[in-house]
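Practice problem: predict the structure.
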Amino acid sequence: MEIKPIIETYGCAITTDIWTEDYHKTSFISSTIHYTNDDFAFVLRVLFAAPFENGVSKTGENIRNLLFQKLRAFGIDTSLLVGHVVFVTDRGANVVAALHGYTRLNCKLCILNVILSCAFAPDLESENSSPSASLALPWSVRHLEHCQAASLEPVLSEVASVCASCLEEVMGTSDTSANPLHMIYRIATFLTPKMRCCAQKQEMTWSKVKFDQVLATAQDEPPPAKKQSCSDRFTDWEDGVSCISAPKVINAEIAEYLGSRLEDKPDPENVLQWWKFNKERFPVLSKCVRFILRIPASSAPSERAFSVCGRILEDRRTSLGPQSVSNILFLHSNMK
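Answer:
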């Protein structure tokens, strides 16, 4: 299975949402997994739309139990989720309670739903194979600019000022913000070659976000053990590449990345393929790409899965059982 080793090494993002169908009032929880594979391709897979049993309330504990039970059915060890998985949700209070203690990007709380509801940012929720994390911050800044301009209009002043204030508070779009969400999206923008200069204060960006897992995976595989000779007994006294600290390696890669020219091939618009082509040149940063750009900008993929469920369970097929609906959705989403 491709999913499990990738989660263990590079982590993944999971979008989740809850929906209640109109005919039997059965509630479902969906799960869509997002990751970048070894070929630097962005992969989106709908895992399930699991039904709640009749009479089971949608409390935080019950949501968590059902979600984790279904993830385990796919061979995903839920003990790996802390630090390896980012959950992208709406701001449903029970979902928030269910995922307490896990990295969770609450899209509505981050005003991203406001952005997505406007004509400004349709590409944040489009169904394609391109990562959207790098666009969240630029669109937030653009939307903030529109709000600030609208605040000068007497009719729109009050609403625009509130929107601008909320966006500033939650997204932390200023360079001095310590908001971790802002930092994640800033790094995603920085790792997009054509937008890299938007993050000129990269030292601040990288120092405020922990990349322990990235650095651990970025180290070369240890060489096979060999018989120790006399000269090997004092290798700790010798100068060598191993003496170079990880921060120095990262800083050197960042400097080279910022100073490098964007080649026509591969097309810098194709972000992941650009990094695949340059992974030998930037070994640490290319691994960071697989961590950061796996995170979608919204929970739209799970909401889209429920749109498919609505077409599956329609007037002529109201007798379909909840598990059949989930199975059809899985086949529809993964056999394209």
